[in-house]
Specification:
Layout: E1 4-5, E2 12-18, E3 22-26, E4 30-37, E5 39-44, E6 47-52, E7 56-59, E8 65-68, E9 76-82, H1 91-96, E10 97-99, E11 103-104, H2 111-122, H3 128-142, E12 148-150, H4 159-170, H5 177-184, H6 188-199, H7 203-221, H8 226-232, H9 238-249, H10 253-266
Parallel strand pairs: 1-3
Antiparallel strand pairs: 2-9, 3-8, 4-7, 4-9, 5-6, 5-8, 7-11, 10-12
Helix pairs in contact: 2-3
Length: about 270
């Protein structure tokens, strides 16, 4: 079965549900899992990891994963998905690496994570800046507890996984469908069908979306110039960057930065000056 690409529209999505089998999938979001009852099996790459009550796990963006439940009875867990925009200080780690073992056992889970989950899940209507703080606490406290490895080392020969990993590693470079196909050793027509069939967008659309996710976080959380962000995100020119940005966000990069700054100010938050 081919993995499917899961669209994630919200900055933060919190689900508390009975655990069930979920087929292999991937998404741009960071996913946190906290088991409250029973057990859960989380598959990442080609490995399956067992989780029990009180265990905590993180799935990094664009990593194929799935869930299985083998235990009878009541098995429940929190599933928290956070967009990359909420994780800006950890962008480098999230793009290049992932945990060798995504699970932290109950006795090793930092108390700040447990407290954060309880507070965050009690009120999903918390202001964005508060939600973001909890997400960054989860990352800051859990990453030191895990051994990080390059994403490619937990992958497989699956062409979908290879495609996602390749773009995550090279989106800031000058890449094309032809070059990517050559580097992966597959036909560009096979690769084209992967993007249209799995991601429901063509190669350039997926590449630009990845670049825009990175650029959006840079605009929102840094004081870097728009020109610097354009080049750092892999766009060939600021003209192209502005055009693609307008198509996606219906505003210019500067307007986006100002709108986010105004939103923070209305919530009492602080932003870097542009």
């Amino acid at each position: 079965m081919y993995p499917f690409y899961e669209e994630t529209q919200k900055s933060l999505s919190i689900l508390y549900r009975t655990s069930k089998h979920v087929p292999p999938h991937l998404h741009h979001a960071v996913e946190f899992v906290y088991v409250t009852k029973g057990t859960l099996e989380i598959g990442v790459g080609q490995e399956l990891y067992h989780m029990e009550e009180g265990d905590f796990a993180i799935v990094f963006p664009n990593v194929i994963h799935h869930y299985q439940v083998f235990s009878p009875g009541n098995n429940k867990a929190y599933y928290i998905l956070a967009s990359p925009a909420m994780c800006e200080p950890f962008q480098e780690e999230l793009q290049k690496y992932c945990p060798q073992n995504p699970v932290i056992s109950k006795g090793m889970v930092p108390q700040d994570i447990v407290n954060g989950i309880k507070c965050l899940t009690k009120s999903e209507k918390e202001q964005f800046i508060v939600q973001q703080a909890y997400v960054q606490i989860f990352l800051a406290k859990s990453i030191p507890c895990m051994k990080m490895v390059e994403k490619s080392s937990v992958g497989s020969e699956d062409i979908i996984y290879q495609s996602v990993s390749y773009i995550a590693a090279h989106f800031r470079e000058d890449i094309s469908l032809e070059k990517m196909a050559s580097d992966l050793g597959v036909s560009k027509y096979v690769l084209s069908r992967v993007f249209s069939g799995t991601f429901h967008r063509n190669f350039n659309q997926y590449l630009n979306e990845t670049r825009l996710n990175y650029a959006g976080a840079m605009l929102e959380y840094t004081s870097r110039t728009v020109t610097d962000i354009c080049m750092e995100s892999g766009f060939e020119s600021q003209r192209t960057f502005n055009r693609v940005f307008m198509q996606s966000y219906r505003m210019t990069p500067r307007e986006y930065r100002n709108s986010r700054k105004q939103q923070y100010q209305s919530m009492g938050g602080n932003q870097n000056d542009s």
